[in-house]
Backbone:
């Protein structure tokens, strides 16, 4: 049997995004934002949007493929895919599924995307407002456990307590995103630098490890990439960003109800990361640049540990601002500003940034950027991550 | 185990049994001052939260057994930011995840009673306290947790 793998068989040929807005500030409807990002990605790739024949998304995206196909006059829709699970856990999976459709011949030219207008629709940071709750929510909401931050906080508390990790490690993650955003014209937090004192003086969202700046923004916007066969990408305007690997899932009983997952203090990449590296034929030491989803900085910490960049015991030493900054840090992190400071586009802004790093066009370009990882939303299930590579890696 | 006034102000969502009946025995139990959790008749394993099948042996023959209300703090958080109108102006409060070693190590979520600014340590012993909400419509009873002073 031939080896079953996505490695090097597809590439991202185009990236697009809208202007990124603070939540509720988009002048455009969510569906229009999706259309704008898709058209930008096609233009970047030099491909007629009518040639797109598939869409992949995640997080219950409301811009559904048949409506997109009708609106764009797409000749033939062949692939419509949604990754189950909420939030940004599926960001890398959406790109992986787009690639899988292309590799298997189900489609030729697939858009992976995310569109989000939280002014038009509900915000994530507020809990459910219903009068009664049943099922699993009934075991949390009456205790004031309603928001995503609260659902994840006790994982972070336990992990950091077990490993003796200081809050300064999380501060380094937040300051890195903000520092990178200052050079990025797309970043919502450009012009709003973050220093240690501002971080330290910021209010508690949740003790012991959620200061204000440990939490992502909420934003309006859309972002998209166009996935095509590798051989076609080589004839298009940009240097191809080859998909070397994508993996999604979660380990044994991660989603056991009411906080009963056996591996509780986890970002839930324990089984996903080894699969990711196996398909890429790489290890953590081969990764040049990392985009790692910050819903909350503690999730970045656990994702980096589970992807093998350091152990829990090494976290205080590794997570220092100078190690994480482009161009010369040992592992440049969230080089566009990420969810904290570029835009909370459920991590899709990180896919676009990984492509820019491979192309060499990031506003915070790393010295080496042949292999770029995107780690999707942690602490949910299923999670997902991917690795993009330059021509030197295939 | 004893009754206590409500830890959080009224107005948060009222818990009701799931429409499919899965969680009904738990909520019926708390009204009677009993902490009922799932236990498999097939393999004897404990399970929480409720599910239709035993994850260990795949038996559908799940019983409800009374768990002793004794546990240890597995993790915790102290929210400050109000995420519901009922919490506006309240200030910090404590949520704990409690492991029940005498019920197969299952974990339950609740509030840690008393001073919301008290120091919390993973591993500390806690006991269940029933918190009736008799005036709610429909009435319900929550299971809360309180630190126990350990001898020695």
Residues:
């Amino acid at each position: 049997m031939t080896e079953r793998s996505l490695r090097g068989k597809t590439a991202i040929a185009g990236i697009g995004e809208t202007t990124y807005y603070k939540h509720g500030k988009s002048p455009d409807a969510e569906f229009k934002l999706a259309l704008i990002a898709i058209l930008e990605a096609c233009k970047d790739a030099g491909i007629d949007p009518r040639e797109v024949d598939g869409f992949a998304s995640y997080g219950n995206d409301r811009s559904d493929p048949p409506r997109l196909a009708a609106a764009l006059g797409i000749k033939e829709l062949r692939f419509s895919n949604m990754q189950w699970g909420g939030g940004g856990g599926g960001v890398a999976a959406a790109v992986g599924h787009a690639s899988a459709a292309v590799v298997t011949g189900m489609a030729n030219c697939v858009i992976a995307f995310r569109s989000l207008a939280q002014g038009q629709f509900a915000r994530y940071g507020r809990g459910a407002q219903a009068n009664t709750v049943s099922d699993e929510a009934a075991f949390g909401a009456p205790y004031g456990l309603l928001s995503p931050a609260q659902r994840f906080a006790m994982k972070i508390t336990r992990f950091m307590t077990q490993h003796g990790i200081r809050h300064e490690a999380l501060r380094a993650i937040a300051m890195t995103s903000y520092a990178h955003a200052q050079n990025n014209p797309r970043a919502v937090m450009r012009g709003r630098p973050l220093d240690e004192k501002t971080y330290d003086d910021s209010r508690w969202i949740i003790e012991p490890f959620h200061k204000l700046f440990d939490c992502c923004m909420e934003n309006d916007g859309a972002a998209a990439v166009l996935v095509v066969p590798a051989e076609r990408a080589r004839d298009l305007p940009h240097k191809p960003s080859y998909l070397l690997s994508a993996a999604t899932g979660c380990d044994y009983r991660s989603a056991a109800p009411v906080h009963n997952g056996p591996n509780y203090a986890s970002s839930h990449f324990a089984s996903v990361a080894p699969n990711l590296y196996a398909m890429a034929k790489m290890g953590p030491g081969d990764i040049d640049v990392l985009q790692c989803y910050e819903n909350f900085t503690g999730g970045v910490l656990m994702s980096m540990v589970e992807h093998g960049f350091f152990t829990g015991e090494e976290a205080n030493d590794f997570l220092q601002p100078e190690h994480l900054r482009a161009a010369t840090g040992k592992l440049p992190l969230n080089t566009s500003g990420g969810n904290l400071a570029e835009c909370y586009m459920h991590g899709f802004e990180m896919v676009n940034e990984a492509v820019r790093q491979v192309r060499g066009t990031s506003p915070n370009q790393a010295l080496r950027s042949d292999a770029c990882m995107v780690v999707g939303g942690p602490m949910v299930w299923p999670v997902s991550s991917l690795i993009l590579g330059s021509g030197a890696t295939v | 185990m004893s009754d206590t006034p409500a830890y959080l102000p009224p107005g948060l969502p009222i818990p009701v049994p799931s429409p499919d009946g899965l969680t009904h025995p738990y909520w019926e139990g708390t009204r009677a001052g009993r902490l009922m959790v799932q236990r498999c008749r097939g393999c004897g394993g404990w399970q929480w939260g409720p599910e239709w099948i035993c994850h260990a042996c795949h038996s559908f023959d799940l019983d409800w057994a009374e768990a002793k209300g004794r546990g240890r703090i597995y993790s915790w958080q102290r929210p400050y930011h109000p995420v519901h109108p009922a919490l506006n102006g309240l200030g910090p409060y404590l949520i704990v995840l409690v492991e029940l070693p005498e019920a197969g190590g299952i974990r339950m979520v609740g509030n840690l009673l008393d001073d919301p600014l008290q120091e919390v340590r993973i591993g500390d012993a806690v006991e269940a306290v029933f918190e009736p909400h008799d005036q709610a419509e429909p009435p319900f009873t929550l299971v809360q947790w309180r630190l126990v002073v350990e001898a020695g």
Remarks:
- The radius of gyration of chain A is 20 Å.
